[in-house]
Amino acid sequence: MVLSQAQARQSVRNEVADVYKVIINDLKMASSQLPEAYTGNAIGRATKWAALSLLGKVYLTNYQFSEALEPLQIVIDSGQFILLPDFAEIFEPNNANHAESIFEIQYEGGTLGEGSRWSFTSHPRILSEAMKISAGNSLIPTSDIVDAFGENDEEQVPSSRYSATIGTMSYKGASGNTLSAKHIKKHYMDHTMQNQSDDNWPLLRYADVLLMYAEALNETSGTPPQEAIELVNQIRRRAFGLPQNAISARDLWPSMTADTESFRNAIYLERRLELAFEGHRWFDLIRTGTYQTVMNSHFGSSSPYKVESYHRLFPVPQQEIDINPLLKPNNEGY
Questions:
Q1: Are the C-beta atoms of 215 and 209 separated by less than 8 Å?
Q2: How crowded is the C-beta side of 41, counted as CA atoms within 13 Å?
Q3: Does residue 132 form part of some domain?
Q4: 94 and 228 in one domain?
Q5: Sign of CA dihedral 40, 195, 141, 130
Q6: Which of 37, 131, 233, 331: disulfide with 251, CB 3.0–4.6 Å?
Q7: Could you give phi then psi for residue 124, rounded to 5 degrees?
Q8: pLDDT tens, 199-228?
């Protein structure tokens, strides 16, 4: 329904459940009407599988674990997607819309302003000379995420996943001494491709679907199901470049699958490592109710920044409230 300007200014805020009801209905309709694949210039548009994957994620967000199983299982059973054998291939600029990709933002290099600026806006300025790129931000991996990889033995090995996620660059300090710093390596591009890269950005990939399905299975079973454990193990094996369907020393330890809670935490860790720097972390922290603990630990007790419970939501912009006062009251805490 199209609202007139006068009608829009009389709109009130909907209940959260009502908004999700619309989202779920839209995704169900999309999954029944969208094609399974595209060809030619249409490649990259949302498919049936993208709608089903997102539907599963919405259900997971709402803690509707039983409902999440069906759409995610349909995607898995379709046989349309695989885990690429080499983790680094996922983020290779010349490997767009690969067999693990379910939906990704399409970029086109050149001078038309349709390219990706990820490297320019993300890589730290201090490494710009060493990396031979123009770098416009100070985004660097925290010691906490590096330690998380280390505790999983990926930094020491190192695993192909760690090597493709976090890089280390050497550079000259002010006094001429050699220093080193870590940087985000996913989507790293040659400086010749910088600022107007055709490197796509993955929004939904098969590994995410497998981890969501494993989580939903775990939450709907009395004990961790073997099927769910095996899916997580496949991702762990791929992280170390091992055959995905063969038992390995990198499989989950028995203590990590002893009960529902232990396996839940193992899945959370795997999501953090597998999907690092892909835009999922904050939403996972919100969904798991750990955002306050994690973020306040990151900032530290002496920091002026403190995450409160109400920070799980943004405020309604004051500009919108000025236009339509019926949007009040603002979200709690604002």
A1: no
A2: 1
A3: yes
A4: yes
A5: positive
A6: 233
A7: -65, 140
A8: 889 999 999 999 999 999 999 999 999 999
At which residue do the structure tokens 């693990």 appear? 100
Question: What is the C-alpha separation between 163 and 298, in angstroms, rounded?
Answer: 23
Give residue-wise pLDDT tens across range 293-323: 999 999 999 999 999 999 999 999 999 999 9
CB distance 206 to 242 below 8 Å? no
Does any domain span residue 77? yes
Q: Which two tokens stand for residue 276?
A: 């690092």
* 16 and 101 both lie in a single domain: yes
Sequence-distant (6+) residues with CB within 8 A of 183 are 123, 124, 127, 131, 140, 141, 166, 167, 168, 169
Q: Are 198 and 234 spatial neighbours (Cβ–Cβ below 8 Å)?
A: no
Bridge partners, 205 (sequence order): 101
Contact 209, 267 (CB under 8 A): no
Range of the domain at 162: 118-193
- What DSSP string describes 156-223? TTT-HHHHHHEEEEEEE-TTS-EEEEEEE-TT---GGGTTSB---EEEEEHHHHHHHHHHHHHHTSSS
Angle at 192 between CA 187 and CA 196, to 5 degrees: 65
Widest CA span in the chain: 65
Task: Evaluate the omega torsion of the peptide bond into residue 304 and state whether it is cis, within 30 degrees of 0.
Answer: no
Q: How far is CA 188 from the centre of its chain?
A: 17
pTM for this entry: 0.92
**What is the DSSP-derived secondary structure letter of residue 241?**
T
Number of domains into which the chain is organized: 2
Q: Which residues contact 201 (CB under 8 A, 6 or more apart)?
A: 104, 105, 107, 116, 118, 187
Domain boundary among 135, 158, 193: 193
Q: Which of 193, 209, 233 corresponds to the end of one domain?
A: 193
Whether residues 230 and 100 share a domain: the answer is yes
Q: Which helix (H) or strand (E) holds 7?
A: helix 5-8
> Other CB atoms closer than 10 Å to residue 229's CB: what's the count?
20
